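Reviewer 2 asked us to include a model.

Predict the structure of this chain.
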Amino acid sequence: MDRSRRQSRRDTRRAEREAQRDAPPSRARTTLRAEATVRLPTRAATSGGASGSAIGVSAAVSGLSGGPSTVLSTGVTPPAASRLTLRPARNRRRAASVWSRLPRPAAIADACGRALRRSLPAAAAVAALLAIGGALGLGYRWLTRSPRFAITQIVVQGAHHVDPDQLRARLPIHAGDSVFVGLADAARVVRAHPWVAAADVRRVLPHTIVIELREHAAAAVADLGDLYLVDAAGLPFKRAAIDAGEAAGLPILTGLGRAAFTTDPAAAAATLRGAIAALERWRAADRPAVGEVHVDPHGGLTLHTRAPAIAIQLGAPGPELAGRIHRFDAAWAGLGDAERARARAVHTAARSDQVTVAFAHE
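Predicted model (structure tokens):
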């Protein structure tokens, strides 16, 4: 009897679990419990009388919402081997077809119309930009290819040592090209010329290119292993072409080698600049012409005149240089023509109140 009741409870719990598993997710979950037992007629063990049959059913239904429950029962003992399971009906809703999920043609046309209306301003802006770009491209093509703006002459101004014809031959632009061609490459070629210190290349409409030059001014020739033209700043800018007469009339600076510029270019340029400045001060008055300025290892300057050949030691450039030149002037004025012709060396840097003059033997 007890075993039959336990079996009945297990069946009831199994039915509840299956009902919860099969319930649709969109509806509120409902717990359904059903119990049913049936007892078949049995023969009494007493005096042979027969007891009546009894059928008992008890059921309880309760909702998740906590509503009232109803229990029906009878006083009949449930049978030992009877099972009854109640399950809720499954949701057998048929899935819709793929074609039914597609939007209607009217909805598609309406969406396309809205998208087109929204994109009209952007499309108009793009079209305007394309039109402007096309017009600019056509205008540039006409300007760069029209014979009206073809180069007919290239004018070189400020050329003294630069040959204009050779310079024009080196340019990347020529007569017949458009005047609107880029001038950066032409300016780079012009400035690369060794005699050119600065250059300006410009166009003059409708068909002229003008090149303005500022050339280097050679102040001396420096012996740096080879002879180089040096400007007033002490910077060598070109190897001197002696055969072409580029060094004619220029003094020669000696005493510095190529190693001096390789080791310390700024110091070497400052030394040459000091020598050139001393030479310019010497030339400011009527004094013997100087053909060479020698720089000793200590920076002292020695001037070598052309005729007569005299070595004039001035010492290192500095504030005392003007006084030394003044002492030379005083000593030179005290010499006669015969003595000046025999003079071979003048020392002005030994003492501030003394000048030593060395003469050649008669």
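Residues 75 and 350 are 152 Å apart (CA to CA). The first helix runs from residue 2 to 22. We have added this to the supplementary material.
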